[in-house]
Design goal:
mainly alpha, globular
Length: about 375
């Protein structure tokens, strides 16, 4: 990799890190605020999420306008791999990822009705375990001892969150079917979130497509799914609950105008977040996004405690967040323990990752020519 290419690649990586963290935190805090306003209509919010994803199509058209047509076409002759079976499906294969995204988002949005922010943030850490298993048993990547230690510490933090949630619920005597449903929904949602992330990574290795186009396809597909399932899902929910009526979200927006403002903020922020999510997966891998997303959850959790918590909170919650952060830092080699061979383990993994990234960069060098963001001065 030439020095100039390394600088461009590094610039793009930093842009993706900042974009993912900032837009992801923005969108999650917006949803948390809507939840505080008691605007908890899962399918309605998911529909706005897909509208935000569909907005990424404007980036596709913008790039075609900014780049001369001949130059744009000339870059398409570069291919990362020979034709394969997936290319028969073409871009339609991303309809599957939209389906996974729909189930994940709907179940997660529904879980906000049953669980606290702490419980939801803890369950979001499951993604790093699922991606680890994918790398270990599917991609056949090596496993190092500092990674195992990091995962053990993260698991301890997650178990602490579970104890806090159970203890808080027992004190208020509200533990019951609602919490059980919430835990079940979050577990299933993280399985589909993992399928979404690793499918995007795998398909983008085999099909030439830009991140904004992937997000746009998912958005359009998701809007269609929401339109088809909107009425049936409402009838499957508790018909005696007035919040399950079809007109309830529209009535809430009409009564409180600030909800419309925050819905617009959510739509824009989720559009930016999903673009940077796919971009991060494209230039790095699914684990890179998983790491950023897990770290973002800790930031969101801390901000939620500071901004939205009006009553007292369990003092063990910050401790659980600290334990999760330490586990993430060790797993991602930010915090290196110079004992028991953990430092040697980190060095081996860094070397292994560098070899993997160099191979990936050489096979994807054509992407930099299509990326207008990297050419901005």
């Amino acid at each position: 990799m030439a020095d100039k290419d390394k600088k461009v690649y590094k610039r793009l990586q930093l842009l993706c890190i900042f974009g993912t963290m900032a837009s992801g935190t923005w969108s999650t805090l917006t949803v948390s605020y809507l939840d505080k306003l008691n605007f908890t209509y899962a399918l309605f919010q998911v529909a706005f999420m897909f509208i935000g994803e569909f907005l990424c199509y404007f980036i596709v058209y913008g790039k075609k306008i900014c780049i001369r047509n001949d130059d744009f076409k000339s870059t398409r002759r570069y291919s990362i791999q020979p034709p394969n079976k997936l290319q028969r499906f073409g871009k339609k294969i991303f309809i599957f990822t939209a389906f996974c995204d729909f189930i994940d988002s709907f179940l997660q949005a529904t879980s906000y009705n049953y669980l606290s922010t702490a419980a939801i943030m803890g369950f979001k850490m499951l993604l790093i375990f699922f991606i680890f298993l994918f790398r270990k048993f599917v991609m056949k990547r090596n496993t190092y001892r500092h990674q195992i230690l990091g995962l053990i510490i993260i698991l301890i933090g997650m178990l602490m969150i579970g104890v806090i949630v159970f203890y808080t619920s027992s004190e208020s005597k509200v533990w019951g079917d609602n919490e059980t449903i919430g835990f079940f929904f979050m577990f299933i949602s993280q399985i589909f979130h993992t399928l979404d992330v690793i499918s995007i990574e795998y398909f983008m290795w085999n099909i030439e497509i830009e991140p904004e186009e992937v997000v746009g396809i998912k958005g359009l597909t998701g809007i269609i799914i929401c339109l088809v399932s909107y009425v049936p899902l409402h009838y499957l929910l508790d018909p005696n609950d007035p919040k399950n009526s079809l007109e309830a979200p529209f009535k809430d927006i009409d009564r409180r105008s600030e909800i419309a403002y925050f819905l617009v903020m959510f739509t824009i922020s989720i559009s930016i977040f999903n673009f940077f999510m796919v971009k991060t997966i494209k230039i790095n891998d699914s684990l890179s996004f998983c790491t950023l997303d897990s770290g973002r959850m800790i930031i969101v959790w801390a901000l939620s405690l500071a901004i939205f918590t009006t009553a007292g909170f369990n003092p063990f919650e910050p401790l659980a967040a600290f334990i999760l952060a330490v586990g993430l830092l060790i797993y991602n080699e930010v915090l290196v323990i110079p004992l028991f061979g953990f430092d040697r383990s980190v060095k081996k993994n860094i070397k292994d990752n560098q070899t993997y990234k160099d191979l990936r960069f050489r096979s994807r060098s054509w992407q930099l020519m299509l990326d207008t963001l990297t050419t901005m001065k």
